[in-house]
Amino acid sequence: MELWTIWWVWVVAGLALAILEVVVPGFVFLGFALGAVVTGLLILVGLAPANVAALALVWAVVSLAAWIGLRRSVGVTKGQVKVWTEDINDR
Fold first, then answer.
1. For 60, left (φ over 0), alpha (ψ -120 to 50), or beta?
2. pLDDT digit string (tens) for 14-62?
3. Where are the domains of the chain?
């Protein structure tokens, strides 16, 4: 059995990516983390393919969908640009 066909490996990888999202600034790894956890759950219930390449495709598609959903729900809103009128070094 290959390592990437075990469900808990995907869940642990998703948790590691979620922790990395907290450590690294930005909004990058959360979609990948959700994709990995969902892929692991699909393997657990038997709905995911056993092929590693197909699993990577499932992960990529679910990650993209999660990232788009997160971006629409909590992402950048129109006009959210911060304009600085005063420099901290001018005080």
1. alpha
2. 999 999 999 987 778 999 999 999 999 999 999 988 888 999 999 999 9
3. 3-74
